[in-house]
């Protein structure tokens, strides 16, 4: 719908912004940023585009570019709280702590904004003023009771002060005080799930479901918990219901793929990842997982490599992309190249699966010493993975061959 408007009026900043939001929804971050830049070029006063672009730059580890962008804000907008907050975020990203603190304090004198209070809390955590950080996070919650980021900062202040258990108790108290807030119930439930308290997490999700029976997000969280507890039938029922209403729901499709993988139904899992890519062909996560499944369960290695390389292009710093490209080359029998990618994956993020893969590739190239080192480390991390047996089998198969020095 937006493209015909742009054909008629290419300089329409609002249309470029709407097109940016389409790209954001599709997961094409490069195009999202490009259209935000275009909207701002067409209208430098388009504050929403400026703020989003700055946020994207900060998230992309370019805080200096974000600061430059905010310093170019037209004079009538420069003293607004949203501009001040985003500029502070850039200063924090640059590690210019003193300057950020002075700016935050000046802003708070003008307005007790929840965002400024949270920035103050974050800066206080760095200064080890954990009580002060908790105080400002609590004040932010008073002003914005549904602000999940405030809860996150509050929990972070407790953790940084060595009081993680007390922090979880405070979150539970807050959730009990706000039973009608779906976002609060969901957030605290996720914290409890990550801590292994699935019973209390399920209770909070039930409260959220009662507060809003139509919430798809709550349904997905319950399905996620069901998958963690291997309640596959219950998870499948929920996810099928979500997809009946929205056949392109990314989270539901990915969870269905995960469910099918756990059930050993690889072809169905592949099908769900293909559905994700029909809607968002540049979804790096789906591309990478589809590539790995194709390489592991089919003979479609060239297609797998194409998807894996695109995932790497879209997420160059993700170790999973290196591991998948390495795995495709391993399956192709190109072991030296597999070693290179597995080494890159393990150096970025050492994982048991990554070390098993690297051990197997070392064994195949005749480097038993380094292969054995990686296998031993992987076994210490997780000896129950299927890759453990695979790596030990490769070791046995290559044991009779002369080792490379």
Structure description:
With 405 residues, the chain is mainly α. 78% of the residues lie in helices and 0% in strands. The chain has helices at residues 2-8, 13-26, 29-42, 47-59, 63-71, 81-94, 97-110, 114-126, 130-143, 148-160, 164-177, 182-194, 198-211, 216-228, 232-245, 250-262, 266-279, 284-297, 301-314, 319-332, 335-348, 352-364, 368-381, 386-398. Helix 12 (182-194) packs antiparallel against helix 13 (198-211) and helix 20 (319-332) packs antiparallel against helix 21. The longest helix has 14 residues, at 13-26. The model has no long low-confidence stretch (mean pLDDT 94).
Separation of termini? 63 Å
Low-confidence stretches: none
Give the helix/strand class: mainly alpha
Run of helices and strands: HHHHHHHHHHHHHHHHHHHHHHHH
What is the secondary structure topology, with strand pairs?
Blueprint: H1 2-8, H2 13-26, H3 29-42, H4 47-59, H5 63-71, H6 81-94, H7 97-110, H8 114-126, H9 130-143, H10 148-160, H11 164-177, H12 182-194, H13 198-211, H14 216-228, H15 232-245, H16 250-262, H17 266-279, H18 284-297, H19 301-314, H20 319-332, H21 335-348, H22 352-364, H23 368-381, H24 386-398
